[in-house]
Amino acid sequence: MTEKYKALVLGASGLVGKALVNQLCQDDRYSQVTCLVRSPLSKAQYHDPLNKIQAIVIDFEELQDYQGYFSVEHVFCCLGTTIKQAGSQSNFRRVDFQFVHVAAQLTRAQRAKSFVWISSVGANAKSGNFYLKVKGELENAILSMPQLDNAAAVRPSLLLGQRTQKRTAESWGIAIMKVLSPIMFGPLAKYRPVSANQVAYQMIQLQVF
Fold first, then answer.
1. 61 exposed, middle or buried (CB, 10 Å; 0-12, 13-18, 19+)?
2. What range(s) does the NAD(P)-binding domain occupy (predicted)?
3. Candidate list 6, 113, 131, 133, residue with the active-site label
4. Of 10, 51, 66, 179, whose CA is between 20 and 30 Å from 105?
5. Does the pLDDT of residue 183 top 60, yes or no?
6. Is residue 116 included in any domain, yes or no?
């Protein structure tokens, strides 16, 4: 009999999170998909014929209080915001660094098999760009964390997909990058826009089975 896995997803209502949860629901290796969310999920956006999804509304400011939910095999973290949505650099850092870092710590504490999260192409702790600097600092913090052996980050460029919230600057960036994509080879290939489904698929492939 094939071993069944339980997954925990943080950020299930986001662009990649939705794609990921839907893929996990179709993946025979998973028997349960627990989603920690800020507000109830819209069932219409998820295809879950086997009722694998268990959605838990939590306060991410008190994430450590939900440590028991990290007692699964695989933890996926799709949390993330923009500085515009967050309202300030400090609020952005709280979501994109603090929440994800705490999730990694809880994954270690509960001895899950592996932890995969979304970073960004160009992430670098020494970057002059605040967004990329925070992403790079987070990578350094998680990948150097003792007793968290199976941690991995996906580093997408601009994400393609249908968002619930409009991001004008990002939309322009995607349009420009789509035009340039055919000539982006070699080292430039990693900057091509990528679909949320592709990122979700990669996250699953990075988990340890």
1. exposed
2. 11-131
3. 131
4. 51
5. no
6. yes
d(CA 108, CA 166): 35
Q: What CATH number does residue 130 fall under?
A: 3.40.50.720
Q: Which residues form the domain of 49?
A: 5-159+194-206
CA–CA separation, 14 vs 80, rounded Å? Answer: 8
pLDDT at 172 over 50: no
- Is 108 a member of any domain? yes
Integer Cα distance of 82 and 66 in angstroms: 25
94-104 pLDDT, tens per residue? 999 999 999 99
Is 174 a member of any domain? no
Among 18, 46, 52, 135, the one annotated catalytic: 135
DSSP output for 94-114: IIIIIIHHHHHHHHHHTT-SE
CA 69 – CA 73 distance, rounded (Å)? 11
- 118-148 tens-digit pLDDT: 999 999 999 999 999 999 999 999 999 999 9
pLDDT at residue 186, rounded to an integer: 52
Domain count, the chain: 1
Pairwise CA distance, residues 165 & 85, whole Å = 10
On whether residue 176 sits in a domain, the answer given is no
Q: Summarize pLDDT for 64-88 with one digit per residue, the tens.
A: 999 999 999 999 999 999 888 999 9
Residue 140 φ/ψ, nearest 5 degrees:
-60, -40
- The angle, 0 to 180 degrees and rounded to 10, between the axes of the packed helices 15-26 and 196-206 is 60
**Residue 64 phi, psi dihedral angles, 5° rounding:** -60, -20
